[in-house]
Amino acid sequence: MKNVIFIAPPSAGKGTQSAILVDMGYVHISTGDMLREEINKKSEIGLKVESIMQSGKLVSDDIVYELLKNKLTNINKSFILDGFPRTLNQAEMLDKLFKELNISDYEVIYLDITLEDALERALGRLTCECGASYSKNIKEFKPKVEGICDKCGKKLIARSDDNEESFKVRFQTFMENTLPIKEFYESKNKLHIIDTELGKDKIALEIKEILK
Ligand code: AMP
Questions:
Q1: Taking the CB of residue 208, how many other CB atoms lie within 10 A of it?
Q2: Ligand 1 center to residue 10 CA distance, Å?
Q3: Is 36 a catalytic residue?
Q4: For this structure, is 121 an active site residue?
């Protein structure tokens, strides 16, 4: 199976699509999750990045890259990369790392969404520590039992950076950095753009088609 790099504004549905791919045997690598893990562990990295993440700004390329490199070096399954690269510099770092690790079989999927739609989703988003993501207000994404994860039964929580102020910074930061990343992968013939208005199921079908 081809590896996947997801590039999408926050709340575009990467988590939902990643969960579908995980059910097909993929490993989900999310740099945001890895950083949140460091914060929960109260590690040196966690303490350094907590306030930056809370504000919606980007953590330094080097910190995220080191965490990611460790993970990718030890992986032996097809993977979904979610949240990296977020800058052109990160895309170049990743390209070098892929070369070192002999990874060439991948596609880049860009999920396109407007700020208004993404904000509405973010303000209703609930997540589980197992990685599953739900919505308080979009019917198709509500959990079966309010506040409880369908998959593992744990309590759902709202991410602390899913407030309007932080979300707008995250969205804006993403947009400012993304155009050169898109061009970078377009020039390698790796970029596929999918409109999120298609809805969860059609997006999943398109992704399967791309990864064939
Ligand atoms: P996410 O879970 O992907 O929305 O990421 C949450 C936050 O983690 C972001 O707003 C950034 O502060 C930080 N983060 C995650 N991935 C990266 C990255 N590749 N580069 C810099 N910061 C990142």
A1: 12
A2: 9
A3: no
A4: no
- pLDDT tens per residue, range 127-153: 998 888 899 988 888 999 999 999 999
For residue 67, which of 34, 94, 42, 89 has the smallest C-alpha distance? 34
The answer to whether 94 and 84 are in contact (CB under 8 A) is: yes
> How far, in Å, CA of 117 to CA of 122, rounded?
9
Q: Identity (one letter) of the amino acid at 210?
A: I
Ligand 1 centroid vs 182 CA: distance in angstroms?
18
Q: Which tokens go with 101?
A: 């690790």
Catalytic residue among 2, 42, 159, 202: 159
- The answer to whether the pTM exceeds 0.90 is no
Torsion of CA 152, 156, 161, 165, to 10 degrees: 140
The domain 3-113+177-211 having CATH identifier 3.40.50.300: the answer here is yes
Question: Hey, which of 18, 54, 59, 173 would you mutate to test ligand 1's pocket, going by the most ligand atoms within 8 Å of its Cβ?
Answer: 59
Please give all residues whose beta carbon lies within 6 A of any atom in ligand 1, as ranges: 10, 31-32, 35, 52-53, 56-59, 64, 83-84, 86, 90, 170
